[in-house]
């Protein structure tokens, strides 16, 4: 396997995370904010983002998956759903990447059915070329080409999440 040069550097990531956190802080000033991260992929982005948000907030998580190895199965499985009260709260859903849109659409609909005061979505990466389902995204870190990427929480078979940057993943052909 081969890990290439950064598509998005560590410095670019941290600058963008601070910009997003600033916008979110302004938008959620004086609101009852609950930030929900979608695991596992969003964990690095999520932790960096909430560290820079300058408004009181609560934290919770969703564990969901639609991927088998490096392909979307088209079926979204939710393994854990927030214990935090959602009704009447301002919810910010944070994910690592949006590509087909299936996962975010499913999770968004489930949260909306619980009557939050508001629901916005923040994604670190947007792979627009792969979009099949339209999902409103309010905060976007980076738009990327239709390449399989790893690093900064994103993985290939649970590996490479610890890279501090984003790179295109390539399998070595033997």
TrEMBL record:
<dbReference type="GO" id="GO:0005829">
    <property type="term" value="C:cytosol"/>
</dbReference>
<keyword id="KW-0328">Glycosyltransferase</keyword>
<comment type="similarity">
    <text>Belongs to the purine/pyrimidine phosphoribosyltransferase family.</text>
</comment>
<dbReference type="GO" id="GO:0000287">
    <property type="term" value="F:magnesium ion binding"/>
</dbReference>
<keyword id="KW-0963">Cytoplasm</keyword>
<dbReference type="InterPro" id="IPR029057">
    <property type="entry name" value="PRTase-like"/>
</dbReference>
<dbReference type="GO" id="GO:0006166">
    <property type="term" value="P:purine ribonucleoside salvage"/>
</dbReference>
<dbReference type="InterPro" id="IPR050408">
    <property type="entry name" value="HGPRT"/>
</dbReference>
<dbReference type="Pfam" id="PF00156">
    <property type="entry name" value="Pribosyltran"/>
</dbReference>
<dbReference type="GO" id="GO:0052657">
    <property type="term" value="F:guanine phosphoribosyltransferase activity"/>
</dbReference>
<keyword id="KW-0547">Nucleotide-binding</keyword>
<dbReference type="GO" id="GO:0032264">
    <property type="term" value="P:IMP salvage"/>
</dbReference>
<comment type="pathway">
    <text>Purine metabolism; IMP biosynthesis via salvage pathway; IMP from hypoxanthine: step 1/1.</text>
</comment>
<dbReference type="GO" id="GO:0032263">
    <property type="term" value="P:GMP salvage"/>
</dbReference>
<protein>
    <recommendedName>
        <fullName>Hypoxanthine phosphoribosyltransferase</fullName>
        <ecNumber>2.4.2.8</ecNumber>
    </recommendedName>
</protein>
<dbReference type="GO" id="GO:0004422">
    <property type="term" value="F:hypoxanthine phosphoribosyltransferase activity"/>
</dbReference>
<keyword id="KW-0808">Transferase</keyword>
<feature type="domain" description="Phosphoribosyltransferase">
    <location>
        <begin position="11"/>
        <end position="157"/>
    </location>
</feature>
<dbReference type="GO" id="GO:0000166">
    <property type="term" value="F:nucleotide binding"/>
</dbReference>
<dbReference type="InterPro" id="IPR005904">
    <property type="entry name" value="Hxn_phspho_trans"/>
</dbReference>
<dbReference type="InterPro" id="IPR000836">
    <property type="entry name" value="PRTase_dom"/>
</dbReference>
<dbReference type="GO" id="GO:0046100">
    <property type="term" value="P:hypoxanthine metabolic process"/>
</dbReference>
<keyword id="KW-0460">Magnesium</keyword>
<dbReference type="GO" id="GO:0006178">
    <property type="term" value="P:guanine salvage"/>
</dbReference>
<keyword id="KW-0660">Purine salvage</keyword>
<keyword id="KW-0479">Metal-binding</keyword>
